[in-house]
């Protein structure tokens, strides 16, 4: 085989939906599925027989983002989903999956606005959860963002949300229809609040490894004090 003679180790074939009849032919020639999208399938073949397959697997994680939005009355914005896997609806934070190429803060703002009608400003990452064996066997990273509302009037997304309200922090912590994970998210918020939010985890634009673009790097930094931070 010329590929092997020329030192080729891994071969990739991208087959569009309109050419799907090629798939069984590729399979008969030793190609395997690597991943698929709605308009194509990617197939691969590792040629060396004396070394392990070094072709990296496809993306293994989902990225979800939620907004922990707190108003001036110390109330948190919460929703109940219209469709849920559980028999009983739970109060939870508004949020959803990040779009390809979408930054975490932008996802949080978009999802909160879409589901509740509240436009909120990103302040800091609050915490994140790493879960395995999520949908289709993938892992899931769920980022919770501390946010400040620009408006408080609620307009729910009737396609996704059955209920939405501003719930007092104390009620949220003790409510029987709030999960233990969401109580933990609240404890993270209270821990930051107890220290007057003198630090935050926020993005900074840093030049990429290839030096042809910038990446967002999230890091802990000290917030600049405001007048409200001092006692007189």
TrEMBL record:
The keyword Hydrolase is annotated on this UniProt entry: yes
Pfam families: NUDIX, Nudix_hydro
Domain Nudix hydrolase per the UniProt entry, residue ranges: 60-190
Keywords linked to the UniProt accession: Hydrolase
InterPro entries: Nudix_hydrolase, NUDIX_hydrolase-like_dom_sf, Nudix_hydrolase6-like, NUDIX_hydrolase_CS, NUDIX_hydrolase_dom, Pre-Nudix
PROSITE patterns: NUDIX, NUDIX_BOX
Source organism superkingdom: Eukaryota
Cross-referenced SUPFAM superfamilies: Nudix
Sample GO molecular function, one term: hydrolase activity
Keyword Hydrolase: yes
Coiled coil: none
Annotated family: Belongs to the Nudix hydrolase family.
Name of the protein: Nudix hydrolase 8-like isoform X3
């Amino acid at each position: 085989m010329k590929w092997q003679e020329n030192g080729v180790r891994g071969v990739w074939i991208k087959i569009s939906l309109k050419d799907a009849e090629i798939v069984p032919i590729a399979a008969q020639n030793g190609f395997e599925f690597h991943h698929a999208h709605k308009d194509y399938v990617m197939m691969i073949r590792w040629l060396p027989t004396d070394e392990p397959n070094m072709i990296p697997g496809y993306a293994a994680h989902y990225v979800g983002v939620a907004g922990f939005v707190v108003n001036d009355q110390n109330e948190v914005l919460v929703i109940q989903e219209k469709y849920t896997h559980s028999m009983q609806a739970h109060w939870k934070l508004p949020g959803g999956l990040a779009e390809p190429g979408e930054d975490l803060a932008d996802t949080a703002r978009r999802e909160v606005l879409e589901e509740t009608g509240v436009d909120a400003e990103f302040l800091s990452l609050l915490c994140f959860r790493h879960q395995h064996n999520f949908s289709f066997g993938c892992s899931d990273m769920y980022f919770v963002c501390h946010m400040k509302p620009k408006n408080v009037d609620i307009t729910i997304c009737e396609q996704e949300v059955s209920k939405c309200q501003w719930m007092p922090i104390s009620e949220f912590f003790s409510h029987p229809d709030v999960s233990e994970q969401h109580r933990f998210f609240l404890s993270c918020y209270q821990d930051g609040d107890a220290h007057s939010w003198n630090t935050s985890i926020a993005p900074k634009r840093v030049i990429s490894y290839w030096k042809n673009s910038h990446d967002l790097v999230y890091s802990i930094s000290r917030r600049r004090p405001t007048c409200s931070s001092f006692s007189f």
